[in-house]
Amino acid sequence: MSRSLSYKTQSIDTSIEAELVQFSLWRSRLPSQRLILASDMTRRCWELSMDGMRNRYPDATVWQIKELFIKATIGEEWVRILKDILGENFVLRDPVWLVIKLADILNSLSIPYYVGGSVASSTHGEPRATQDVDIIVDIKTQEVEPLIQALSGEFYISEIAVNDAINGKVSSFNVIHLESVAKADIFVMKNEPFALSKMERRQIHIPFNNPEKAFYICTPEDTILQKLVWHRMAFGDSPRQWRDILGVLKLQGDTLDFDYLWEWAETLHLESDLDRAFSEADLIGF
């Protein structure tokens, strides 16, 4: 179970031996089981946050707790945006529930999509809690109104924000489930080679062994490459993205398509970052 001197553990307080055992256990689980583990982590974090709020403000109303939860999870600016449309009910929903809900709507509208971000990296690598859900969509202008109609009532969505994303003014728009305040960032797919490749290579993910709840998810290789892009956009200062990258590399190991990784790393000018990631994940010679 020895590793090269360049191997980097996911956390400084975890020994190499312990981490190898941990990844072996995660690797023995189905992708759906790893995602459920990450979803449970997220839900437990939210529950602990709620417990803390109730203990600190024992006389707070449901709405006041909901307001505090919004500030803590998605940002204070959303309290003002959502104040007039939020109801009194408050039910926690985990990321998998939100993904299935939105995937069902996108499928019904025949809008191509896939799930990326930490949901994808938790499925393919080290499971972790997540703040929100990232979904990439190939949406056209004529599909905006049907999407808004399908989401309205149960979700917050801004037609202006959707059109701004489609027109390239911004990269994404938000949808928020009003009862649970669960947020998804919806990224509009660019008409670029790498973006087209990611959509073409997306995989079907079946949670809970239930094909009726299946949704599309980013491949392990494209998850690694996209997170390398985000890491570079953060000027190499994004420990969370880097940890996700190493997590996928360590868990997937030699099952990855290394030719594909190197091909796109060269195109995207990520060779040095990918080489460093391979070294820290102990994937030498690939």
Name the features.
286 residues, alpha+beta, 2 domains, five-stranded mixed β-sheet, two-stranded antiparallel ribbon, 53% helix, globular
Characterise this structure.
The chain contains 13 helices and 7 strands. Strands 1-2-5-4-3 form a 5-stranded mixed beta sheet. The protein is an alpha+beta fold. The two termini are about 20 Å apart. The model has no long low-confidence stretch (mean pLDDT about 95). The protein has 2 domains: about 15-220, no CATH class; about 220-285, no CATH class. The chain has helices spanning about 15-25, 30-55, 60-75, 75-80, 95-110, 115-125, 145-150, 160-165, 195-200, 220-235, 240-250, 260-265, 270-280, and strands at about 115, 135, 155, 170-175, 185-190, 205, 215.
Helix share of residues?
40-55%
Radius of gyration: 20 Å
Shape: globular
Mean pLDDT: 94
Note the total helix count: 13
Tell me the strand order in the biggest sheet. Answer: 1-2-5-4-3
Strand content: 5-15%
The termini sit apart by 19 Å
Write a brief structural summary.
The protein has 286 residues and is α+β, with helices and mostly antiparallel strands. It has 13 helices and seven strands.
